[in-house]
Design goal:
The complex is a heterotrimer of chains A (407), B (373) and C (307). Chain B has 373 residues and is of the alpha/beta class. Chain B has helices at residues 3-16, 21-35, 41-48, 67-74, 80-87, 101-114, 143-152, 161-166, 182-185, 201-214, 227-230, 234-237, 241-246, 256-259, 339-371; strands at residues 56-61, 89-93, 120-124, 127-128, 137-138, 141-142, 156-160, 179-180, 191-194. In chain B, α2 (21-35) crosses α10. Chain C has 307 residues and is an alpha+beta fold. Classes of the chains: A mainly alpha (407), B alpha/beta (373), C alpha+beta (307).
Chain lengths: 407, 373, 307
């Protein structure tokens, strides 16, 4: 099997793509409405719940989902497990898109977005603010991700006949990029370590508002662990899906090892959480907190079940099990983040929150955009490895293209 | 001559009319207080009552019902009208004059000539402008001509009553005569306006008192109304305000709430939008002798935007709402969860999870198929 | 070998740069105290008669619009809570025959959570310890709303150009030698303005002189790290009933600030991690004969790949 990354090829305007485009189109006037009328009419946000799904999902859960690049980079380049190498580029693409979507969501969510340019100005910084650290890290990391991905674009550029001027520039940049890539990768591992843990620290300030089942000084560590779990699971999820959608052979073996790591980290995570609760004398709250208990137990189930499913090596090899386990782990990570930011957050009696339909639709639109760009990039740029030549309904050139080995 | 002698003189004069020194001082004190003058001016007031000091007043009547003059005369206990007439030298007043015709006109011209530039011109009634103002003519001259003539040489101008202040009843739709208030005609001049239908005579008393004593007018608002009388709305000083704040309203005339004396806002009280002093200073010294006092909503007779324009029983908007008599709880309910949104989210979430599960199952089956053959 | 040494040196230089670029002030987390010229307000619930003159005057002094309800004909300004058009509100606590009024507004904390979390300092402790808001620096992220344990900062939800709104102790009036509007107008001196130290002494004196009248605590003395607005409650009515949360003595931002600064002090840990990562990855990537395969992420020196 050829491990070299290639464009998938084929038509972009498939039915799923058109559906996604429709969703995006539906969300654009809603975004315009949000900017014209403010957040009040368009969202379910309130003074008691100033942060809703645009933060809890688009930023917090969304960047957790976008931790595939981070998680795979650790495995591949730090722990030197080269067999995961083919998973790197699609993971980084997902990360770049996920973090970019988080960036868009931020611009849509904040009320005085015209002041955002003041945030990177060092002399303004309040270094006590965890949110500042998250903002600066995420802003930087988005850039790093696209730079990490740039070789894919530059490769395609150098192969094609158009844009001779840019090709020249690319030829100059590439060697420099190669040399610097190690340090770029190092930053690309440092930054998520910092801000993913800080996403947990963000809620440390809510001492009287975050339920005791979730409020703990271990929040940064738990967020870091869960983001790794989500990252690996997203890689499994995506790899399986794209194999099916784009007709490339499955990477079941690699995914099996990955799933094994997920199982192990999940057990560790659960131990940390339950141990922390026990040490603080909060174990009794697990069953005695009404609705909060339900959310907590659901979380535990979603973290535990995949760990149990993936315990045995044979089970791990089954793509169906891999996929289901990955899905559950993704939901587990998302639920954990939702619980910390929304479900477990109680500003006092009389306040409640549920996203409004326009609010949800704007999120759907951003996700649709993310997936659409993923499809376009994967089909036109060398991202996925082991591509079987595309079906004959695509253009003649790509249909008959047999990838050369080596260059 | 000393101050005591001056006082005796004015007191003598008033006593002859049955106004005691005590009553005189009482009225002076009230009047001084209402216009914001300090107590010591009561003495100055007496000085001002010297014939040589008394300002000459020329009182013009145009399109009016003479209600303002009548209200002034109806003040009885003590005779505020007497007091005013003592404070000023009323050199022309069509209703009060014994004379009429040529003699009256001559008196007017005499007074104007003698006190040119110094007399106070009080105008009662609106001035018609349509058809060259033929709708009001006195002594062969139109109201407009008389106004321009007399006001032209006046030292001060006061418009008493809504008609003179902004047109009043004669100016209500369709205003066939083009009835207009004095300030709208004499745009270049400062005109003190005392709207009301009728104007509260105490408003005139306070204004004239200050002018007679110090030669100045009290602080005026943008429409020329003295702030001491027109600075606040009826609503702010209404005796029924506690009922408004507590939400106790008469809904129709004669209902239980109406008979209990509750707030008349819902049956059309214009109090919140009407600047006047009726709730503070009774007309004719009879307490309760004003619309709200007798159970009818205020009609806003001082305000050009309301009186004879907005139906009597239509409600007005509250310009500056204030808190009611109720309190929010310690933890108010802010709930705003939309059931439609919850349903929608449930559908979408369920669909996605369902699709994922199906996909997982399919993958498992396919993999088995791949393994089996 | 020289490559390795060079790479390690490179890593150290990078780490050093990182340290100089991002050095936060590493300070011990001592408990904050109010500034020496701190001002405050003392609200005595036993003196309040619920006249709401403070609510009216506050709106006037701060140019805030009334909150009318079309359901009642829009004739009252009847805020149910603090909001973007209401900086202070009088609430009624009523339970089993016991009643008390309670005035709500910004507590002007000694160690404010809103100040701690605000990214570029839109919320800041200003003159006299007043917690002030500068919309010029605000991006509208609303973290302050989340952080405040009293739910004080309110947001303008229904405009395209929103800001945060809260009581700022009428500092525009203080600048001209005045006092906060609510304190000026209160007919019963239920809420008074003064130097924080004097008010605290006054509050304690009241408790000492009249113990049967009051609940035995001055709220705000140390709650959540202390606040410059102090509360006294009637005997038998604990402060939670009045909506004032039980926060304990630890300042609200203490936990997160200690943790954050412990991890990031001097930016040493991130820099060290960065250097370590660089070192490890260089060593891993050194030599294409690495048995595990794999190389850089797609560089021009791409290897053949396992067949």
């Amino acid at each position: 099997m050829n491990l070299r990354a290639q464009p998938v090829g084929g038509s972009i305007l498939t039915v799923p793509f058109k559906i996604l485009f429709a969703v995006l189109t539906a969300s654009v006037p809603l975004m315009a409405w949000r900017f014209v009328s403010g957040l009040g009419p368009t969202t379910g946000l309130s003074d008691g719940y100033p942060w809703g799904i645009w933060i809890a999902y688009d930023v917090v859960a969304g960047t957790g989902l976008a931790c595939g690049g981070y998680a795979i980079a650790i495995l591949c380049y730090v722990l030197n497990q080269g067999k995961y190498h083919p998973l790197v580029r699609p993971a980084v693409l997902t990360s770049a898109l996920g973090y970019s979507m988080a960036g868009f969501a931020i611009v849509i969510d904040v009320g005085r977005y015209w002041n955002l340019w003041k945030v990177p100005l060092v002399w303004n910084w309040n270094r006590n603010s965890v949110l500042l650290e998250v903002a600066i890290c995420v802003m930087t990391y988005v850039g790093v991700l696209w730079i990490e991905l740039s070789p894919a674009f530059l490769e395609k550029l150098e192969e094609s006949d158009s844009f001779p001027g840019l090709r020249k520039v690319s030829k100059v940049i590439r060697p420099w990029l190669d040399k610097a890539m190690i340090w770029i990768l190092a930053v690309g591992i440092l930054l998520p370590t910092m801000h993913q843990s800080s996403l947990g620290s963000l809620m440390l300030i809510a001492v009287s508002k975050l339920h005791k089942l979730w409020h703990t000084p271990l929040l940064p560590l738990l967020f870091l662990a869960s983001c790794l779990l989500m990252g690996y699971s997203v890689v499994v999820f995506e790899s399986t899906l794209s194999s099916r959608m784009f007709g490339r052979p499955r990477e079941t073996e690699t995914l099996s090892s990955l799933s094994g790591i997920v199982a192990a980290v999940s057990i560790l995570y659960l131990a940390l959480r339950l141990g922390d609760l026990a040490l603080r004398g909060r174990f009794g709250l697990i069953l005695g907190s009404g609705g909060y208990s339900v959310a907590f137990l659901l979380e535990m189930a979603l973290f535990l079940t995949p760990a149990l499913l993936l315990r045995k090596r044979e089970r791990r090899k089954n793509p169906g099990t891999q996929f289901l386990a990955a899905m559950m782990m993704i939901l587990a990570g998302m639920l954990y983040r939702f619980d910390v930011y929304l479900v477990g957050f109680n500003p006092g009696p009389g306040w409640s929150y549920f996203p409004s339909i326009p609010e949800m639709f704007i999120t759907f639109g951003l996700v649709a955009l993310e997936i659409m760009v993923f499809i376009i990039v994967v089909k036109r740029f060398p991202i996925l490895a082991g591509i079987v030549p595309a079906a004959s309904d695509s253009g003649p050139g790509e249909g008959s293209h047999v990838p050369a080995t080596g260059r | 001559m000393g101050k005591d002698e001056d006082n005796r003189r004015i007191v003598d004069r008033l006593e002859a009319r049955g106004v005691s020194r005590r009553d005189f001082l009482k009225v002076c004190t009230i009047a001084a207080a209402s216009v914001g003058l300090p107590a010591w001016c009561v003495g100055s007031l007496a000085e001002a009552a010297e014939p040589s000091n008394r300002p000459s007043v020329i009182w013009l009547h145009f399109q009016e019902c003479t209600g303002c003059s009548e209200t002034l005369l109806r003040t009885s206990h003590p005779a505020v009208s007497e007091l005013i007439l003592e404070l000023i030298s009323l050199d022309y007043h069509e209703t009060l004059f014994a004379a009429s015709g040529v003699q009256a006109e001559e008196a007017l011209h005499e007074a104007m000539k003698r006190n040119a530039g110094r007399y106070v011109c009080i105008v009662e009634g609106a001035v018609p402008l349509k058809d060259n103002g033929v709708y009001c003519k006195i002594g062969g001259r139109t109201a407009l001509e008389i106004l321009n003539d007399v006001a032209g040489k006046a030292g001060a101008l006061i418009a008493i009553g809504s008609c003179a202040s902004w047109g009043g009843i004669p100016s209500s739709e369709p205003n066939p005569t083009g009835a207009t208030g004095v300030p709208q005609i004499l745009r270049e001049k400062q005109v003190v306006t005392l709207p009301g239908c009728p104007a509260n005579p105490y408003n005139l008393l306070g204004t004239v008192l200050q002018y007679a004593t110090f030669g100045t007018f009290p602080a005026l608002d943008g429409l020329g109304r003295p702030r001491f009388a027109y600075g606040r709305t009826i609503h702010e000083d209404c005796p029924r305000r506690s009922h408004f704040d507590a939400g106790r309203f008469a809904e129709t005339f004669g209902d239980e709430a109406h008979r209990n004396g509750y707030c008349l806002y819902k049956i059309g009280c214009k109090g919140p939008a009407t600047h006047a002093s009726c709730s503070l200073k009774p007309f004719s010294e009879v307490p309760g002798a004003w619309p709200v006092g007798i159970g009818h909503p205020c009609v806003g007779c001082t305000e050009q935007t309301l009186a004879f324009r907005v139906p009597l029983h239509a409600t007005v908007e509250i310009d500056r709402p204030t808190p009611p008599d109720t309190y929010p709880p310690v933890h108010p309910d802010h709930g705003n969860v939309s059931t439609a949104a919850v349903g929608f989210a449930g559908l979408v979430g369920g669909a996605l999870v369902g699709a994922g599960v199906m996909m997982g199952k399919k993958l498992g089956v396919e993999d088995k198929k791949e393994e089996d053959p | 070998m020289s490559v390795t040494r060079r790479c390690v040196l490179k890593g150290l230089v990078a780490a050093g740069t990182a340290v100089t670029v991002g050095v936060p002030v590493a300070s011990a987390r001592e408990r904050k105290t109010p500034p020496s010229d701190a001002v405050g307000m003392l609200y005595d619930a036993t003196r309040c008669i619920g006249c709401k003159a403070c609510v009216v005057k506050c709106k006037e002094a701060n140019g805030l619009p009334p909150e009318t309800d079309p359901a009642t004909g829009s004739i009252y300004d009847a805020p149910v809570d603090l909001s973007a058009s209401t900086n202070t509100v009088i609430r009624l606590y009523k339970e089993g025959g016991r009643t008390s009024y309670v005035k709500a507004q910004c507590m002007h904390c000694v160690a404010p959570a809103c100040v701690s979390v605000c990214m570029i300092g839109a919320f800041h402790k200003s003159d006299y310890g007043i917690v002030a808001y500068d919309p010029g620096k605000c991006v509208g992220c609303r973290y302050c709303q989340l952080a405040c344990p009293y739910n004080v900062p309110k947001y303008e939800w229904n405009t395209a150009f929103p800001k945060i709104v809260k009581c700022e102790m009428c500092r525009h009036l203080l600048a001209k030698g005045g006092i906060p509007a609510c304190c000026e107008v209160c007919p019963r001196q239920a809420v008074i303005y003064g130097k924080y130290a004097d008010l605290l002494t006054d509050a304690k004196d009241r408790l000492a002189r009249d113990p049967d009248r009051y609940y035995p605590k001055v709220y705000g003395e140390s709650d959540g790290g202390g606040s410059q607005v102090l509360y006294l409650s009637a005997a038998g009515i604990p402060f939670e009933k009045l909506g004032l949360p039980t926060l304990g003595d630890e300042p609200v931002p203490q936990l997160v600030e200690s943790l954050q600064h412990a991890i990031y002090r001097g930016f040493v840990a991130p820099a060290a991690l960065f250097a370590a990562l660089g070192y490890v990855m260089i060593r891993n990537g050194n030599g294409k004969e690495n048995s595990n395969g794999g190389d850089g992420i797609g560089t021009s020196s791409e290897q053949e790949g396992k067949e």
